[in-house]
Amino acid sequence: MGVVSATSEREAIATLGSRALFPVEVKVDGQRTTRVRSLRISGQMMVTVYGQLGSLLRSGVPLLRSLSVIREQTSHHDLNTVLEDVCDHVEDGISLADAMSQHPLVFSEIAISMIRAGSEGGFLEEALERIATFSERQEELRSRVIGALAYPVFLLVLCSLIVTGLLIFFVPSFEEIFSRLRERGELPLATDLLLWASTAMQSWGWVLLLVLLMLGILLRRWINTPDGRYAFDAAKLRIPVASRIFQSLAISRFCRVLGTLLRNGVPILRSLEISRSAAGNRILSAAIGKAAEHISAGQALAEPISRCDFFPRDVVEIIAVAEEANTLDKVLIEIADRLDRNTTRRLDLLVRLIEPIMLLILASIVLMIVIALLLPVLKMSSSI
Prior knowledge:
Helix content is 75%, strand content 0%.
């Protein structure tokens, strides 16, 4: 028994052969380290990779050759680097799923599990095509959410800029005019508060901006902690109107991931473990974890999740019927599609409500500023 340094098992065998040594068995000493760091690549680009790889395999192109073709065609440097590393691992005899698991920020856990199930079950090309379809739907839903929230965020920024500009540049020009009224104690309270806010904004505006920035950074770091994330997820489920949207999005992700994994032959306990993390909500994930404990004890899925307050009654009933009919994988994806459609309608309605509300808030703030400036003028006119 000896040790030889080489970049692959093939190179190790060639090195020993050149020394007239013929090994009985070659093993890797420890875990092979990935030669490239994990890089973040857009979801839409990964949809293309999964789809192309599935099409090439279905056409009879060998796996290693298919990976090389996709790597040569891509113009994205980071993706090219990742695919080159995956090719090297596969060439050394490592399975495709294990090679992809070296890049957790690029290949999701659900994709790796489905590819492993497809490799073991002999339907790898079908699993890759389903991953592409699943990823495409997720990207489409994410784009809809971002697109729907873009205009309200723009209105919020515009409102903040207008109010800040009025307080810093417009209101101070009236301070000298109202100074005599302030000395006599005849300045209206609304005007006095407005002038005070304007002076504070001019003197301490940058300090306030830095404080808000620091609070935002601290809040983000706290949310990234387990306790903070749990509290944040709980708060999202208590927001009026928006809580239904967050709840539907989490349940939809859970049902789609679980149905896709079950359809590809992944065991239900492993599927639940992956899908609970894909839900994106710690509260719902904890409830699903408790349900998985009951399933491991021999119960059906519908019974334990019915005790969770976050699953709608109609979803639980549909899952119960699907389990009896042995069509759980198909029905879960149908549930996810229906929840996505309902979520899109609710999101569109919420955005339509937010737009006039924010415009009304902006108009109200500007009106309050104008009234605060006009009150002294009206008071002086009445005195005259």
